[in-house]
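FORM 12-B: Structure-to-Sequence Request
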């Protein structure tokens, strides 16, 4: 089925053999895959690895995203979501009742996952979230509570004057089961300095994720790509996640986050020529779609110890997310219901998707839909009369 001489001609002969034998690829081989001009050859290898692990099963979750506030003390240059304070146009901070109302907005079919994330808010304190989480769990005890980027955990530790471990312990006690995986961006220090200089370092991201795993909290992990990073930065980022997973386990799913190039400082600087655009992946819109598939594929091939690779339809767009299922992805995320972070930066996908639409996306590409919770426990398929 594979055209082996073609892989040899592409300079991928050894990589091909390793993938067929289930051997681990090196960071340099990851970089080679990113630079390969034939993304369909790379995608076919990734699809092979995906089918080996998951067959044609493709996961989705009936979930509810709740962004509690976009007020943030940080100034990440790629971020169109943040506001300085409540007086700025577009700023919002939900009160407890508003958060709970969103969790209950489920047509009588409770969400399997409640996903709570916001900015690093200057005055909302950890005790407020502990109370909120206890109330959420009282209202929806079966929903897996997934919340916070690693950057928010670090922010709480600074606010409270304690360790991140102490923050995580308190949140776990209040009902938290899992971290969202956000805040990773790109670990390469020079790029991080350019796109999010105030954010925790890559080393701190990995350290805090490891603390969470050791406490029995699961987490996802992520990479923001398509801005000023190089192929080497990407490969090294993925391999750093893989190394952490070897140490602590606990990463459930990898989420490639495509940079949304609107309404943020970094996009403006790039369009004005104020930033170096020489990175090879700074592509036209059309080519950027293919690059997104390439990232999914290389992630599947490098991350041999992270079970799931997400095609996050909000950031990728529905069509690219569907194509990604044949490039190594095995998960589409979920119903979402309300998304602000990507949309404020120009994501043009819908804000929500019904279960029926997600299942149609999956079956339309020849895959088998599998309903799941946040931890990828399998749940029953759509119930009678259930529409969302
Ligand atoms: S990405 Fe997160 S931490 Fe950075 S400015 Fe935006 S909301 Fe704040």
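FORM 12-B RESPONSE
SEQUENCE OUT:
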């Amino acid at each position: 089925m594979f055209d082996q001489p073609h892989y040899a001609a592409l300079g991928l002969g050894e990589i091909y053999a390793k993938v067929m034998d289930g051997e681990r690829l090196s960071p340099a081989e990851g970089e080679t895959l990113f630079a390969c001009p034939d993304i369909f050859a790379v995608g076919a290898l990734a699809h092979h690895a995906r089918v080996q692990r998951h067959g044609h099963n493709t996961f989705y979750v009936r979930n509810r995203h709740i962004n509690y506030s976009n007020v943030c003390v940080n100034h990440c240059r790629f971020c169109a979501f943040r506001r300085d304070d409540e007086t700025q146009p577009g700023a919002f901070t939900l009160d407890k009742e508003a958060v709970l109302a969103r969790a209950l907005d489920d047509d009588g079919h409770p969400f399997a996952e409640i996903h709570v994330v916001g900015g690093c808010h200057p005055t909302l304190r950890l005790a407020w979230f502990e109370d909120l989480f206890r109330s959420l769990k009282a209202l929806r005890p079966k929903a897996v509570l997934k919340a916070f980027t690693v950057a928010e955990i670090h922010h709480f530790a600074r606010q409270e004057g304690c360790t991140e471990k102490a923050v995580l312990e308190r949140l776990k006690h209040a009902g938290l089961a899992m971290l969202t995986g956000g805040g990773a961006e790109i670990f390469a220090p020079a790029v991080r300095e350019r796109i999010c200089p105030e954010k925790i370092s890559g080393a701190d991201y990995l350290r805090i994720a490891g603390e969470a795993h050791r406490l029995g909290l699961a987490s996802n992990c992520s990479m923001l790509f398509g801005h000023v990073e190089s192929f080497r930065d990407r490969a090294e980022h993925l391999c750093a996640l893989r190394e952490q997973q070897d140490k602590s386990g606990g990463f459930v799913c990898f989420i490639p986050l495509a940079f949304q190039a609107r309404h943020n400082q970094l996009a403006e600087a790039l369009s004005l020529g104020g930033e170096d655009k020489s990175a090879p992946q700074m592509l036209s819109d059309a080519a950027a779609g293919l690059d997104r598939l390439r990232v999914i594929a290389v992630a599947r091939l490098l991350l041999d110890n992270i079970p799931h690779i997400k095609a996050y339809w909000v950031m990728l767009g529905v069509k690219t997310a569907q194509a990604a299922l044949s490039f190594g992805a095995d998960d589409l995320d979920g119903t979402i219901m309300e998304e602000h972070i990507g949309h404020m930066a120009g994501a043009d996908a819908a804000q929500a998707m019904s279960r029926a639409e997600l299942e149609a996306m999956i079956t339309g590409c020849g895959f088998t839909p599998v309903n799941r919770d946040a931890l990828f426990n399998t749940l029953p398929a759509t119930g009678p009369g259930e529409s969302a």
